[in-house]
């Protein structure tokens, strides 16, 4: 599996099928090992004598001075620790310096991550990866694979800078707050082979004495009042019994802390556990931070943290009014209470024992076979939704005994007047395993708030129900389509999908013909579903032609898909004297043009004619007749329109030529050859230009996706640079910056 964004080739990265991407640098020989995780192959490095041995990539890779680059690899050796470095080269290909990682704290035969990051020094134009280990004898083996060199790999949406998230550069992203010192360490941690957010260094807090100890980020990114945020990181507690925690903090304009939400880790051991805390930013919030700590620490105890993130909290379901804390129960029981009865609500324990999302689940325990009522906090409904249908969801499982369950929503006015409940019929809580329980309820007149309420009757003593992913949202059509005449596109909105299933989307015309629709990674053909909502923009739908969409979803391991059929919809055909030229991979460049002269098509064919002496007819040998070719002449009526057409043509990509019905032409994918663009009249003030576009029919591109940020935001762009002014050196345009299409690297 190729690492996204890797400057290294797949052979160099995975050491499959050979070691051609690597060469010795000092005191070693190399060979092809087996037992790797990123493919079977791995780099086997054997020492020639005692001392440091080094290997490096054969190739070097373009870098820009001042830009931060990251390198990591997976390593394995039971006899010696190792380190990784980035070797910086000048324009003369001479070594300027090597930025080294810390040496792994202890040798480990288990595959573990090593990593380093640094800004390229002044004068650096190329870089190589260097792998190193110091041995005490000849013929000592060390193994490496899954090697990366490139721009920093960061969590999309993280408000923190890369170094605060990863500590791969230094420890400057952290401050020793109470009874602690802060440093970086390089423990041998075995992360998943495709978990690229983890590097080799971690941030470590050491308690200087007995008592509470904590550290916090020096990074304080901007936060907005009323927005729900989540803070999380991997914690490595010193002991299973240690009380360790992560805390999300908010600050006002003068820098005063005005709120803090703590989430305590219920550690099942001394491994690495992702702990989450979430909260809504209070009024007057301007910034936020994260802190981690130990309560009642012993002197010398160490708490380590990795992959540190603060971002807007995820929605457990699109449109849900239930905050993350109440829906996930990752930090505590949030607003859930027992209204009546003996049942007790708690968070499951320990970490990872019960969960559907995250690492914990809500737990309802009834010591007696009686009836109890459990209720959530009140959640504000969207304005104007009284009288509309809402859908509630809970993912639940019975782990002891049994329950009869009645699910309801209790409605309230804006002034918290109780408007009563809308309830489902009583039903037996299903078991075993996790079950998605859904109900639809209509909000009464005047409803402005809602609470989820369950009436549970335990069928046995000590019955236990686990629940997770609680959500309440306005019920909207599962599939909807909207035509956008101005962009000649159709938006398909798919709701309540199941993450992890596979999806296939067809565009269907009146004659029943099906064409796969394009998504971010190519045609949507058994593509994994990332979340419950998918919005697809189809820029290749024909003009003036009724189409519908067939959506097939397939659970992993199943062979029978679920099917949805959309309504039929039509894009307005537009002016018969215009055409569209579209770039399927960059629809922001699509352009409608005024046609001067339609194409006069021809279909070339390679032929050789042989005239045989004494024979009337020649012998003609023919190849396969080619597709359509012709010149299309179009007008641009302003300098802006000319710039837009140049922008569209610059990439050289396969384009889609579309026309309105009734002109007796067929939409075609084409490539455009050398263009001419003379002025319509030979005058200096003439804006109109007559473009001659040589078109050659091409196949529909099947592997390119619709370019997009895939969740990348302008905050993600800025966190990789000191200032906005640093971006022009790395990107050719603001579009390239948003899509992270850098120049001069790789």
How would you characterize the overall build of this protein?
The protein has 746 residues and is mostly beta strands. It contains six helices and 51 strands. The protein is globular and about 105 Å long.
Q: Detail the poorly predicted runs.
A: none
Mean pLDDT: 94
- Work out the oligomeric state of the chains in this entry: single chain
- What is the general shape? globular
Helix/strand class: mainly beta
Percentage of residues in helical conformation: under 10%
Radius of gyration: 31 Å
Strand content: 35-45%
Largest sheet: 7 strands, antiparallel
Total of helices: 6
Total strands: 51
| Spatial gap, N to C terminus | 18 Å
Please tag this protein with its features.
6 helices, 6-stranded antiparallel beta sheet, 746 residues, 51 strands, mainly beta
Quick overview:
5% of the residues lie in helices and 45% in strands. It is mainly beta and 746 residues long.
Any chance you could write out the topology, listing elements then pairs?
Elements: H1 10-14, E1 22-26, E2 28-33, E3 42-47, E4 51-57, E5 61-62, E6 68-77, E7 82-89, E8 95-100, E9 108-119, E10 126-135, E11 141-150, H2 162-166, E12 174-178, E13 180-185, E14 202-207, E15 211-217, E16 228-236, E17 243-251, E18 257-264, E19 273-280, E20 287-297, E21 302-312, H3 324-328, E22 337-340, E23 344-347, E24 362-366, E25 371-375, E26 379-380, E27 389-400, E28 403-412, E29 418-423, E30 427-428, E31 435-442, E32 449-458, E33 463-474, E34 479-484, E35 489-494, E36 502-509, E37 514-516, E38 518-519, E39 522-523, E40 527-528, E41 534-538, E42 547-554, E43 562-565, E44 578-582, E45 591-597, E46 607-610, E47 619-622, E48 629-636, H4 639-650, E49 655-659, E50 668-672, E51 689-697, H5 714-719, H6 734-739
């Amino acid at each position: 599996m190729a690492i996204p964004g890797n400057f290294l080739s797949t052979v160099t990265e995975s050491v499959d099928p050979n070691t051609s991407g690597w060469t010795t640098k000092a005191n070693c020989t190399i060979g092809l090992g087996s037992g790797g995780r990123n493919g079977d192959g791995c780099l086997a490095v054997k020492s020639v004598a005692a001392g440091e041995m080094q290997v490096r990539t054969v190739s070097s890779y373009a870098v820009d001075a001042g830009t931060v680059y990251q390198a990591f690899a997976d390593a394995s050796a039971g006899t010696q620790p190792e380190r990784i470095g980035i070797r910086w080269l000048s324009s003369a290909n001479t070594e300027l310096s090597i930025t080294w990682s810390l040496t792994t704290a202890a040798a480990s035969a288990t595959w573990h991550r090593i990593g380093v990051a640094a800004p390229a020094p002044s004068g650096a134009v190329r870089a190589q990866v260097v792998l190193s280990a110091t041995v005490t004898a000849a013929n000592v083996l060390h193994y490496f694979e899954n090697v990366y060199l490139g721009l920093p790999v960061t969590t999309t949406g993280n408000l923190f800078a890369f170094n605060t998230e990863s500590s791969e550069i230094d420890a400057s992203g952290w401050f020793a707050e109470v009874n602690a010192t802060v440093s970086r360490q390089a423990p041998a941690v075995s992360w998943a082979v495709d978990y690229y957010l983890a590097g080799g260094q971690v941030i470590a807090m050491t308690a200087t004495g007995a008592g509470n100890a904590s550290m916090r980020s020096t990074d304080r990114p901007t936060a907005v009042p009323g927005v729900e945020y989540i803070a999380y990181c991997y914690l490595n507690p010193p002991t299973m019994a240690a009380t360790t925690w992560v805390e999300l903090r908010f600050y006002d304009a003068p820098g005063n802390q005005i709120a803090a939400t703590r989430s305590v880790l219920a550690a099942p051991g001394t491994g690495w556990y992702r702990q989450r805390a979430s909260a809504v930013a209070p009024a007057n919030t301007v910034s936020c931070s994260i802190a981690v700590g130990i309560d009642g620490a012993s002197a010398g105890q160490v708490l380590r943290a990795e992959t540190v993130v603060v971002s807007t909290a995820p929605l457990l379901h699109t449109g849900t009014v239930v905050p993350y804390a109440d829906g996930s129960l990752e930090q505590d029981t949030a607003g859930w209470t027992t209204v009546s009865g003996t049942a007790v609500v708690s968070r499951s324990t320990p970490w990872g024992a019960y969960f559907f999302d995250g690492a914990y689940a809500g737990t309802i325990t009834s010591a007696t076979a009686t009836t109890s009522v459990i209720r959530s906090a009140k959640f504000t409904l969207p304005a104007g939704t009284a009288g509309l249908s809402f859908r509630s969801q809970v993912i639940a499982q019975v782990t002891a005994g049994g329950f009869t369950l009645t699910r309801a929503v209790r409605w309230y006015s804006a002034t918290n007047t109780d408007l009563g409940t809308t309830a489902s019929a009583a039903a037996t809580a299903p078991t075993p395993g996790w079950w998605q329980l859904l109900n639809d309820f209509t909000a009464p007149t005047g409803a402005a708030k809602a609470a989820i309420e369950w009436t549970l009757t335990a069928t046995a003593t000590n019955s236990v129900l686990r629940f997770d992913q609680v959500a309440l949202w306005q019920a909207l059509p599962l599939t909807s389509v909207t035509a956008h005449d101005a962009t000649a596109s159709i938006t398909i909105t798919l709701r309540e999908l199941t993450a992890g299933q596979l999806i296939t989307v067809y565009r269907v015309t009146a004659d029943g013909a099906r064409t796969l629709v394009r998504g971010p990674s190519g045609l949507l053909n058994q593509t994994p579903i990332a979340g419950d909502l998918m919005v697809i923009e189809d820029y290749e739908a024909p003009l003036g032609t009724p189409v519908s969409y067939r959506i097939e979803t397939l659970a992993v391991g199943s062979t029978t898909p679920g099917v949805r059929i959309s309504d039929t919809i039509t894009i307005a055909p537009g002016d018969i004297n215009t055409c569209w030229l579209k770039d399927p991979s960059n629809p922001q460049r699509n352009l409608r043009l005024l046609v001067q002269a339609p194409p006069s098509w021809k279909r070339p064919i390679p032929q050789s004619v042989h005239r045989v002496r004494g024979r009337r007819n020649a012998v003609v040998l023919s190849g396969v007749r080619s597709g359509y070719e012709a010149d299309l002449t179009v007008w641009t009526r302003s300098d802006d329109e000319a710039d837009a057409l140049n922008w569209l043509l610059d990439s050289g990509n396969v384009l889609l030529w579309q026309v309105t019905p009734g002109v007796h032409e067929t939409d075609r994918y084409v490539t455009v050859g050398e263009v001419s663009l003379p002025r319509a009249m030979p005058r200096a003030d003439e804006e109109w230009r007559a473009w001659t576009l040589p078109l050659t029919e091409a196949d529909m591109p099947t592997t390119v996706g619709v370019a997009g940020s895939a969740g990348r935001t302008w905050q993600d762009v800025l966190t990789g640079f000191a200032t906005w002014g640093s971006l022009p050196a790395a990107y050719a345009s603001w579009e390239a910056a948003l899509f992270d299409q850098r120049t001069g690297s790789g």
